[in-house]
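Appendix B, example 12.
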Amino acid sequence: MNYLIFTRGIGTNKDGE
């Protein structure tokens, strides 16, 4: 359920990692 928050705040970071 925290996916939205991740994509909004660390969405770019998640892609790099």
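The chain has a mean pLDDT of 60. The CA atoms of residues 10 and 16 lie 10 Å apart.
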